[in-house]
Design goal:
This protein has 456 residues and is of the alpha+beta class. It contains twelve helices and eleven strands.
Length: 456
Amino acid sequence: MESHRPRIRLRFTALYAATLLVVLLGAAGTLRYALRATLEREFDQSVRSSAGLVQQFFRAEIEEYVTVEATLYHIAGELVFEDRALRIRRPNGALFQIVGAPVRRARRPLSGPVRTVRFALDPELAPAWDIEVDASEANVIALQSRIDRWFGVGIPLLVVCAAVAGWWLTGRTLRPVGRMADAAARIAPASGARLPIDDSTDELGRLGLRFNALLDRLDGALAQQREFLADAAHELRTPIARLRARVEVALLEPATARTTGVLSAIDQELRAVSHQVDELLQLARADAAGEDAPIRDEALFLDDVIADELPRWQPEAQRRRMTLDYSALEESPVVGDAALLPRLVSILVDNAIRYGHEGGTVRVRVHPEDGAVWLDVEDGGIGIPAHERARIFDRFFRGDAARLKRPDGSGLGLAIAAWIVRQHRGTIAATAGPQGGTLMQVRLPLASRERAASAG
């Protein structure tokens, strides 16, 4: 059974997830930068606010306490900062006082990292006096870490969810393509089957319509070709038959040796042309019936079919001093057409005799094995090169060696044989034979015992 890997669906999903990941990472980076800048700005404002509070108290109290030192002693005892450490430094840089000193001594040191910022106390009222503010950045860093963790967990989760949703959406989108592909695989020539179209207005629907229109044109061309082939073959059969009859009558009458030779040559040519016309007619009928055309299912023994057919080829084999060996025929029940299977055997044996060497042997064997019936036709002739074996079942194809040995061939026999084998749900292949020639192997389904009993 053919496996269908959803490669396009997988690529679309991966591209969708990768694009979303890039977008989310870009957005997260931008947002993180903006949040960091905002937190830094708020932190700076908070530090400035702490220093500004001291400055406001200083300006408000200096009128009452007159001197800078007295005012600062008063402020240091009144203001308390829970998350700040403020120090007052003299103009010479020496420490004067710690704001909120009694409370600060009872508390643990600030969590690092700590940023220290210095502000002027009041350039007019207290020249060269400074305020130092120690502020912990731990809260800012902790908040940034939490945001990073949210991004680290949220972005992969969003990408996974988006990939699952993209896989589902892509599957729904490509489902009509899958149905069209399955339908296209089942369409046989001249079957009249067409691709299913869900919506003829979208892109896939328009593609399906164009493809169906192409199939209509191809079916029309094939129908014209089949009609021409059948008509030509049918029209040629009658005059050829009349010519053959006249030649045969003329051969019976007394004539000179020259006339007899000419008539014999004409008779041989007419027989060859008649055989080719029969093959063309057979192919035309096969095309008209199609690959799925019903055949007459009859319970047969392939060994009996061969035993009945091969005696007709003994005179031709003897004429070429060849041995036709069909002694290895095992009982092999099959279900098939009683008219087509003998034709298959005839084509294979005819080819083996045509392209075998004079004085050689053509061996025909049949045996059941592994639920199948194997028919082997082996010759010791010119053989088929490996690069030509894939094409020998094409119509009108003939290898170089075959054309040199038998220029009168048509290249249609094996095409008919392959069609007969396909109609019987079998396979046919050509390999190199042990004698150096060609081994044609046909595999057909083995009939059940009940059908075999009915054949008996």
